[in-house]
Amino acid sequence: MDALAKAKEFESKADRKLKGWGLFGNKYEDTVELLQQAANHYKVAKSWDKAANCFIRVAEMHVKLDNRYEAATSYVDAAKCYMKNKPQDAINALNTATNIFLEMGKLSIAAKHFKDVGELYEKEEKWQEAMESYEKAADFYQGEEVTSSANQCKLKVAQFASQLELYPKAIEVYETVAKDSMGNNLLKYSVKGYLLSAGLCHLCSADHIAIQNAIERYEDLDPTFSNTREHKFLKDLAEAIEQEDVEKFTDVVKEFDSMTRLDGWKTTMLLRAKNAMKAKIDEDDDLT
User: Fold this and answer.
1) What stretches of residues are TPR repeats (predicted)?
2) What share of the chain is helix, strand, coil (3-state, %, to 5)?
């Protein structure tokens, strides 16, 4: 008998058991076991939706039995199956699981699954929802003092905030992570990158005074920053904006990119900054 046929047989047995008579606890416990077997065989058969549905039923049985932890993990198992082709159903199952974990005080586990939800929204390019999910994950990781994971999630929050043009929020997060990393010898080397990201968000405003003030703050925050390529890059870009020199801005970007390849996010921010500068130049021309 193949896996799919076995899965259907176990599910049928579970349905019969559920409809039959028996002691409350035993009836549901036996049904859980059968549905678990059905779900596992559906997984082997790569029948992901049916496997997920069985895991959901297992979770519901555990809720009736007041097995909260087992219920939550079954919702997570369902989500893993839904991830194959039904991301929104996966998100719904994970949200149900996280609610149960939060009620139980399992904050680190809840944080992990908020992060999972963020990743699913990210794949769907739903930046607002992704940002909110990563922010929840960061908060709970921070509360449990899992600093490394909290910072990873915070950086995702900053990334999506900047994509949504919520620059003050993105800047605040990048600067916070930079400050938090200064006291850690393993993380200190990353500070210049966080400060560069914050600086690029500042550039999108085309306000050269605000940019210069930010650079001065970063010099105070990290005494080594002044000697980095990232610092020179920001200073040169700020100077180009102050001089309203689009050609100089472009040359500065090309020079930096030739030594340190710019990723997609930085390229997007720089393009926005360049467009903001052009718009400011046009505005100034209109006033003269």
Assistant:
1) 111-144
2) 85, 0, 15
